[in-house]
Amino acid sequence: MCEVLEVGQALSRGRALPYAMIRALSRVTLGPTPDEIDLDELIEARFFDSEQEVRIFHGETGLQAAHLWEGTEDTVIERTYKLANNAIFGRSVTIHQLLHFDEDGQACVSCTRLAGWKGGD
Fold first, then answer.
1. Which residues of the chain have pLDDT under 70?
2. Roughly how many angstroms between the first and final C-alpha of the chain, as a whole number?
3. d(CA 112, CA 65)
4. DSSP states along the chain
5. What is the pLDDT of residue 73?
6. What is the pTM of this model?
7. pLDDT of residue 121
């Protein structure tokens, strides 16, 4: 499911989530949600936990935001990927792929969202 948010509302909800992937002009971070986010440098922010993701991204009209989550009736594929540079980005990231079925029963991935992170050591 998806809900459109205002950027301020998305920042507030996102900061309450434990993990974030932030792509900015000067760097990329993945791990615990940072205290400060520079919107002037922001390319994309994805705040997440196992249940939901809040995204802030550049759209046609500037920064836009959305809240994504799975419903109880959704079919989800969960995948966990090991990360190559675990000293910087952690050991692994988990994603959820939501499937959509058409009238013929054929499936496609309708949405992919971040759903988990494990730190490095």
1. 121
2. 35
3. 16
4. -EEEE-HHHHHHHHHTSSEEEEEESS-EEEEEPPS---TTTEEEEEEE-SSEEEEEEEETTEEEEEEEE--TT-EEEEEEEE-S-HHHH-SEEEEEEEEEE-TTS-EEEEEEEEEEEE---
5. 86
6. 0.91
7. 62
